[in-house]
Specification:
The protein is of the alpha/beta class. It folds into 2 domains: 58-133 and 215-372 and 391-494, TIM Barrel (Alpha-Beta Barrel), CATH 3.20.20.80; 499-571, Golgi alpha-mannosidase II (Immunoglobulin-like). The protein is 32% helix and 19% strand. The protein is built from 16 helices and 25 strands. Strand 19 and strand 20 form a beta hairpin.
């Protein structure tokens, strides 16, 4: 039941967003609409609560990451998941499964449908019966070939006034861009010439959130997804949502207020859900989306992938250690979503202020040698800068200036995942990373799209055959990562909100301590970041602790011996 206080909170959020744009009467109307939407939903749904724990682990995949010619892809994935992944993960992040015109699903044509090639809503709901499902709300833009845009051109609903247009006087000189194509496209609608806003591509037209009907539509989409089994929402490209003349058009106050409103709405629902913001930005900006525990429930730990990969490639923990030491501890209800790889690439913007120019250039040179392509963004409509490195994690870590033959590629790969899996927050592993997948050069040659390097799709029979062969590269990587995930799931000290304390053991070592919320378990996580064996002298109490990964090696003086790129998890119980 919604109280007067709840309604006042909704109203205050709407006022913060629209007071300058709308009359009191109009805001009253939209307030009432949101209240009625919530009431109707709660009337039909019983209360359900969800808790996160050390068992909360997430796999990132497309609906057709595993495919077969005989069945719809989501059913194929479910079959594969039940056979190979259910003991490792309890949460599945499906990247956009809607009908789409481009960008591997992110140019959504219809949020209320599942792409027929992938399956249907019943397939999503069936998976949700035994696992949490996370789905994308592609909230910043929509397809130029979708129903909304077609209706926009005809001034019909739904779609009328849904898309952002600006006139020639709109000052875009300060706009922060994630891409390098032309931002605006001149278009003539009903004898009036305006410019369409296209942050991400000519096929992805930005939505107009100054029209509250767009916001209401996405609240309805959210509830539609919940009714079909989704309980975690990834707000794609959310930082670019609101635009104002002469500003950077990123991270604006109204964007934060919209997230607060969405958080407010889901907190009032009987079924407990989570919001995660996708903000591939510098550290301070990314952290701002936690708000005061009133915006995102989770945020992506965007600085972790580039700093972690850099530490292994240059055998130096300095930058990783400095960053992680200053990373704020999350409050209960908030947490970091940790990852190394995603469907895109390794974000470079999150290194701003963390890696100096020389260090960054050396990093990019090394990645290029390892087979990386680069996607660029425009600054002030003129200067181009690297936005992300497009490469699989396997290829990124395969060779280094210190190991040019790639002798220790497996060790680097496994330890990088060990750090990510044990770090404060929830671990998320990209499907292809489970198998040490290399760059998909064949697909890149066909499409010319840099991001396709890291979007390989597996035939069900082929990947099953690889995993059944214990000597195959795919099976070896799979077994190692599954082992780490299964160890994690049994440790209270790896709860997402369990404390983390950095311990400085020099630039060759990366070390931190995790302590369970009840203070009963402590785990010391230590990684040798070099291609040489390291000898460690730790406090005497650690001599009696056990390594959770495999038996410890000590010398005659009871010193810890860490092989090249080895990780140990020392636990007091």
């Amino acid at each position: 039941m919604l109280t007067q206080k709840d309604q006042k909170t909704i109203r205050s959020k709407l006022d913060n967003i629209y007071k300058i744009l709308l009359s009191k009467k109009d805001i009253d109307y939209f307030e009432n609409e949101i209240v009625q939407i919530i009431r109707y939903f709660n009337k039909k749904n019983q209360k359900k609560k969800k808790k996160i724990s050390e068992k909360t682990t997430l796999v990132i995949c497309y609906g057709d990451s595993v495919y077969s010619r005989k069945k719809k892809s989501i059913k194929v994935f479910q079959n594969f998941f039940q056979k190979k992944l259910k003991n490792c993960f309890n949460t599945i992040h499906f990247l956009p499964f809607y009908p789409s015109s481009s960008d591997s699903g992110f140019a959504v044509k219809d949020h209320y449908q599942v792409d027929k090639k992938l399956g249907n809503w019943l397939d999503i709901k069936n998976i949700s019966n035994s696992n949490s499902v996370m789905a994308d709300m592609v909230i910043n833009h929509s397809s130029a070939r979708g129903l909304w845009f077609k209706n926009f051109l005809k001034k019909k609903e739904p779609g009328k006034d849904y898309f952002l247009t600006v006139d020639s006087k709109f000052n875009t000189s300060n706009v922060v861009r994630p891409r390098d194509h032309k931002l605006l496209k001149k278009i003539k609608i009903f004898k009036k010439s305006d410019y369409l806003w296209r942050t991400f591509s000519p096929d992805q037209i930005d939505l107009n959130f100054k029209n509250p009907s767009v916001l209401i539509q996405f609240i309805k989409i959210m509830l539609h997804l919940i009714n079909n089994g989704v309980t975690i929402f990834r707000l794609d490209a959310i930082a670019y949502l609101w635009k104002e003349n002469g500003t950077k058009c990123i991270n604006l106050k109204q964007t934060h207020e919209i997230i607060k409103l969405l958080r407010n709405v889901i907190d009032l629902l009987n079924i407990q859900t989570k919001i995660i913001t996708e903000t591939n930005l510098p550290e301070k900006e990314n952290l701002s989306y936690l708000g005061k525990n009133d915006e995102a429930n989770w945020i992506y730990n965007f600085s972790l992938p580039p700093l972690l990969i850099h530490a292994f490639l240059f055998e130096n923990s300095s930058y990783l250690n400095k960053w992680s030491k200053n990373l704020p501890k999350t409050k209960n209800g908030n947490c970091y979503l940790n990852f190394i790889a995603s469907h895109d690439g390794i974000g470079i913007r999150p290194t701003e202020g963390l890696l100096n120019k020389k260090t960054l250039n050396n990093f990019l040179k090394r990645l290029r040698k390892n087979g990386s392509k680069f996607s660029y963004r425009k600054i002030h409509n003129k200067i181009k800068k690297v936005y992300e490195a497009n490469i699989t994690v396997f290829d990124a870590l395969k060779k280094s200036d210190y190991d040019q033959k790639g002798i220790f590629y497996l060790e680097r790969y496994i330890s990088a995942h060990a750090i990510m899996i044990s770090f404060e927050g929830i671990p998320a592993i990209y499907f292809n990373s489970m198998f040490g997948t290399s760059n998909d050069e064949a697909k890149y040659i066909i499409t010319g799209n840099n991001r396709d390097l890291n979007r390989y799709k597996w035939n069900f029979k082929n990947i099953s055959k690889k995993l059944n062969d214990k000597r195959s590269k795919q099976s070896i990587f799979y077994q190692y990562i599954c082992n780490l995930l299964n160890i994690r799931r049994a440790q209270k000290a790896f709860h997402p909100n369990a404390s983390r304390l950095n311990i400085n053991l020099g630039s060759n070592i990366f070390c931190f301590k995790r302590t369970s919320i009840d203070k009963k378990q402590t785990i010391l996580c230590i990684t040798n970041l070099t291609s040489k064996t390291q000898t460690l002298k730790l406090k005497k109490m650690y001599n009696k602790w056990k390594n959770l990964i495999k038996p410890l090696i000590k010398n005659e003086k009871n010193l810890f011996m860490l092989k090249p790129f080895e990780t140990i998890w020392l636990s007091n119980k």
